[in-house]
Amino acid sequence: MTDNNHIAVFDQARVLYRKYGTVRGNATEFADFKRKHRDWKAVLPLIRKAIDDQAFWRAVAIGFVPPWKNFKTWIYQRCWEEEHPARTRGQGESPEKMAERKKEKMRSEYTPWIIEATQDALDDFVKRCPHVKWLVDEIQAQSRRMK
Predict the structure, then answer these.
(1) CA-wise closest residue to 16 among 56, 60, 66
(2) CB under 8 Å, gap of 24 or more: what pairs does 70-73 form?
(3) List of long-range contacts for 64-72, beta carbons under 8 Å, 24+ apart
(4) What's the rounded Cα separation, in Å, for the pair 45 and 28?
(5) Which residues contact 81 (CB under 8 A, 6 or more apart)?
(6) Would you say residue 119 has pLDDT above 60?
(7) pLDDT in tens, 49-75
(8) Reduced to 3 states, what is the DSSP secondary structure of residue 64?
């Protein structure tokens, strides 16, 4: 793999990470990555999958989930090596089952409020928390069917 290919692979990971946390320019991040890690060529192919794995874990985790680190910090701390409880405890639970468990928790927490909220409050809530739009839509559809 040429240096240009390495830069391109690193930039793909950096752009993916930008969806979740703060990043700097590709040249700066890549130079820091190479300077910090002697094994950077072996590690480079692992980074993108690790970002995807962390995003998945955050989507299905129940309880406290720490905020995303800056990409520089993520790289410096070798966060692609992190093991996440949902994937490593040997619970044998499929990703689909974990996602359903999280949805059930959200239903129990938000449903009473969603039923009582005004439409303006719901619109504001969905703007601030787009990950719960599915639940608002589901509860509103059930309300319409019951009328």
Answers:
(1) 56
(2) 70/21, 70/22, 70/23, 71/14, 71/17, 71/18, 71/21, 71/22, 71/23, 71/24, 71/29, 72/24, 72/29, 72/32
(3) 68/20, 68/21, 69/21, 70/21, 70/22, 70/23, 71/14, 71/17, 71/18, 71/21, 71/22, 71/23, 71/24, 71/29, 72/24, 72/29, 72/32
(4) 19
(5) 50
(6) yes
(7) 899 888 888 777 766 778 899 999 999
(8) coil
- Distance separating the N- and C-terminal Cα atoms of the chain: 63
Report pTM.
0.57
Q: What pLDDT sits at residue 3? A: 77
Whole-number percent of the chain with pLDDT over 90 = 21
Taking CA atoms, 34 is separated from 97, 126, 133, in Å, by 39, 41, 41
Contact assessment for residue 32 and residue 72, using Cβ atoms and an 8 Å cutoff = yes
Report the 10 Å Cβ neighbour count for 128.
Answer: 8
Contact 72, 60 (CB under 8 A): no
Angle subtended at Cα 64 by Cα 58 and Cα 70, rounded to the nearest 5 degrees = 60
